[in-house]
Amino acid sequence: MEDLLGGMQFHGQMVKMGFHRNAHVGSGLIDLYSKCGGHMLDSRKVFQDIPHPDLVLWNTMISGYSLNDEFSEEALLCFKEMQQAGNLPDDCSFVCVLSASAKMSSPSQGKQIHSLVIKSDITSNRVSINNALVAMYSKCGNLEDARRLF
User: Is residue 59 part of a domain?
Assistant: First the structure.
């Protein structure tokens, strides 16, 4: 709780100094709020204050939603919103959104994301994506697809 209070004080200082619209500062604040008690409304406010969010900021927001089980659906919505804003998902985006799908036990959603992974032809950090796919299929009860990826 002390970390959250200190973070909120830091956030206040950043607002006073005019740095609250900086993507790097915003990413740290989103991470803080999402990891310290799942304050996702505060995370979203920080995100919305940044005029042109980059991929790192989108991924931080998706990750925050994914970390908090009750916000798994919002992770998927944020992932779609990110793409509609013209940002292509990277390995981090896929790992986070696959984690959210697994928590929702949504095999159909997971399969849709798996097809996006295949279409995107991501070559970097493929092991992390495959691990997330195996975990998602396993948690959704689809052991056959999980074994095939393993």
Answer: no
Q: Are residues 130 and 79 in the same domain?
A: yes
Rg (CA), the chain: 16
| Residues 98/107, Cβ–Cβ less than 8 Å | no
d(CA 134, CA 102): 10
Range of the domain at 137: 72-150
pLDDT per residue over 21-64, tens digit each?
A: 889 999 999 998 999 877 899 999 999 999 999 999 999 999 99
Could you tell me if 87 and 146 lie in one domain?
yes
Contact assessment for residue 137 and residue 143, using Cβ atoms and an 8 Å cutoff: yes
Q: Are residues 108 and 144 in the same domain?
A: yes
Say whether both 145 and 110 belong to one domain.
yes
- Paired tokens of 53: 């969010």
Is residue 4 assigned to a domain? Answer: yes
The model's pLDDT over 121-135, given as tens digits with 9 standing for 90+, comes to: 777 668 899 899 998
Take residue 71 and report the two structure tokens written for it.
């916000």
Query: In 3-state terms, what secondary structure has residue 89?
Result: coil
What is the value of pTM for the model shown? Answer: 0.88
pLDDT of res. 36: 87
